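job 3f2a | input accepted
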Amino acid sequence: MKDVTVSQVTTSSPEYRQVWELREEILRKPLGMSLKDEDLGRDHVDTIFAASHEGKVIGCLMAHHNSGDEVQLRQMAVYNEWQGKGVGRLLINVAEAYAQSRGYKTIILHARKVAAGFYENLGYTTYGDEFTEVNIPHYMMQKAVVTE
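job 3f2a | predicted structure (148 res):
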């Protein structure tokens, strides 16, 4: 994607504040919630990917080690004006390459019902029943990590 780069950031990186603000704006405020009310301890151990354009974070995704060969993608967010332009797909591609390089066999995620089609288009499949998380419907989705 032209002029968009993806990098790994940590909670001590200057970009982390922008990642937090993005998650707050896209994932929590529309639901009347705030990250300020949540335990963000996983942020310190997750691998955080930030998509940036001209020095501004425009998208993010976090990868959490669940078990020996499973990684969970979480907290995917892209600013509204960047949605539909390939930023989400770019973040997923980078996260999948990360999972492959670390030897993971399976990627799982909790997809908001409204976003399930996005993940299906990227090869993720739904398993289990619809469930509620942060007061909205979600699906568990998974994908096998491609090994070469």
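job 3f2a | The longest strand covers residues 56-67.
job 3f2a | closed
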